[in-house]
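Researcher: Re-running this chain for the archive, since the previous output was lost when a drive failed. Same request as before.
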Amino acid sequence: MTYGLHITPLRAYAHDVPRYYVQDFGDATSHPDTREYSAFVQNTVRVVRHLALSFGVRYDLQTFNTAGLRPNPAWPEAGKLPVDKNNVSPRVGFAWSIGDANPLIVRGGYGMFYTRIPQIYNSTVELDNGLKQTHLFLDNSDFYQHRVFPTYPYPLATCRVGATSCLPPDSAAGYLTREIAAFSPDFQTPYVQQASLSLEREVAHRLAIGVSYLYVHGEHLIRSLDVNLPPPTVVDYPVFDSAGAFTGNYYPVASFANWQFSRTLTCPFPPCLDAVKRPIDGVGAIDEFDSAASSVYHGLTVSVRRRMTSGFYFRLAYTWAHAVDDGQDSLVAGRPALVQDSYAPYLERGPSVTDQRHRVVASWIWEPRPFDRAHPVLSSIFDHWKLANVITGGSGRPVDARVSGDANGDGNSSNDRLPGVGRNS
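Model: Regenerated structure tokens:
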């Protein structure tokens, strides 16, 4: 509802009535330089004729350029980058051949693998320190903000293409906020533990079947939380049917804002939600990158494979898999936090965005050779061609049931889900 009228986002767009306006101002230049150092040692030992062991260890270190970082007294962790120096990752594997004729091949292994921190994070920490940039968010349904709202499709401030900085107009001064992005003080480099086991045996001439299992457990995965929010209170939202009639039911929502029931210029049609009162005044969202998220993946694959025989090869594989995490958001630095309730991040536990339960892959290669050496001219023209094809099919991936707007009143319209619905459920 905008100005008391029922209007959908599509109709609003068609009639040039935008609801929100967002623009950033300030310095847009960063230098997210990084250096990475690695050392790796591995050895393979044949214990007996049919058994081989391999083992190794790896060390990783990532350092960052700190020249452009500036501290902010409002948040002591602003302008700091983590240095984790104990990233030692062991690994071990084996291969075992059981039997002499058509042996059963058993392979397995375990290892730890540290990941690098994407440079978008140190770039975001450098720019979003609450000093170099300001953020403007206008709601066209607010009486006072409507007076500043630019006429569609023109921007409030036109910045030169390729400019490294842009200043806001004086009319926006009262609506600018400063946002901060910072690493948590106990941040650790993310890593995964991976274990696998496979069995394969030739059941006919050049035809083999195999079964493999893969386990991947991610630890200290990156997740951002808005830590500049007050403790939430439960607010009951009335539920209406498609015709707009009240159903008599309410949905409880953990809200960071309070209801306003009196009519004002900023709330012409009560009830309305007041703007969130942040603990650190004068600062908007403080997105803290912590390393508290985790993930678990289980995958079981059954395959049939025919080695190249008479110019023909094929492989057919079916995989059942399940991936669960609690809201890791790597590579979305600079966007609003995706955790719905920063005081209860454990509620984000659910299927991963990559969770695909069933997947089938069929592939084949055909290399016909219709002419032998007795026909060298025809052989050079028609032999040695390859035909290949890969067919993939799979079940759907989960969808997060999000709602438009800011139902929980945290100033973030990107993390609100349907009440009572879990993430990616």
